[in-house]
Specification:
Blueprint lengths: L1 E5 L3 H14 L4 E6 L18 E6 L10 E4 L4 H15 L9 E2 L10 E2 L4 E2 L4 E2 L4 E2 L4 E2 L4 E2 L4 E2 L4 E2 L4 E2 L4 E2 L4 E2 L4 E2 L4 E2 L4 E2 L4 E2 L7 E5 L2 E6 L1
Parallel strand pairs: 1-2, 1-4, 2-3, 5-7, 6-9, 7-10, 8-11, 9-12, 10-13, 11-14, 12-15, 13-16, 14-17, 15-18, 16-19, 17-20, 19-21
Antiparallel strand pairs: 21-22
């Protein structure tokens, strides 16, 4: 089966390809680069031995039907932009994207997951947690019970989210953040790396520190 990976930076694509190959070693992968308005393309090596990877420029690739899709983009804003571009241009809906989950992720018996999510190595998802669409959970992340992560959320490595937390659409959580129980973080928020979040965070803001404090509007 062919899988199409839509991505801008090969830094993050290397994570996706490694996990995808572990789960689907016989598939072939088409990486689409130079997506319109892409001005941040970074090329680093991501070849994996025995993996069939073909890289295409967006402008030279025209076959977007009957494929599995992966949104290989890290930042919430970029994920949203790339998803909307391919939805409006080619009608690629959220249910055409597959979930990419590393083989050593710990998942409970009871959880809910949407479309196009990525969960990297050594992460833990606790019972009754809900992941909406295009949620990115990087390596060594722990998410407590009864949490809700909305569309296009990105959780950076080493983050610890306690139970019954909710994180709004398009929010970015920086490396090594700790979020205490019952915290609600709004939409389009940035939490700086190493922060300790002890209270609710409103929409469209940047918070940082231990404890995390308001820095500016986002």
């Amino acid at each position: 089966m062919e899988k199409i990976i839509l991505g801008k930076s090969s830094n993050f694509l290397s994570f996706f390809l490694d996990v995808l190959y572990t789960n689907h070693p016989t598939d072939s992968y088409h990486v689409i680069r130079n997506i319109p308005d892409d001005i941040t393309t970074i090329h680093v090596p991501y070849d994996i031995p025995n993996m069939i990877i073909k890289e295409y420029d967006y402008y030279s690739y025209t076959t977007y039907s009957n494929k599995d899709y992966v949104l290989g983009v890290y930042s919430p804003n970029s994920k949203y932009q790339v998803y909307n571009f391919f939805l409006e241009t080619y009608g690629i809906n959220k249910d055409m994207y597959i979930n990419t989950i590393a083989n050593n992720v710990i998942l409970p018996n009871v959880y809910t997951i949407g479309y196009g999510c990525f969960i990297n190595y050594s992460s833990l998802i606790s019972a009754y947690t809900i992941l909406h669409n295009f949620v990115t959970i990087n390596r060594n992340v722990s998410i407590g019970h009864h949490c809700i992560l909305h569309d296009f959320v990105t959780i950076s490595p080493g983050t610890n989210i306690a139970g019954q937390c909710e994180i709004g659409d398009g929010t970015f959580i920086g490396v090594g953040t700790t979020i205490l129980n019952h915290i609600k973080i709004g939409k389009n928020v940035i939490i700086g790396a190493g922060s300790l979040v002890t209270k609710n965070v409103p929409d469209n803001t940047v918070y940082y520190g231990s404890p995390a404090k308001y820095i500016r509007d986002n």
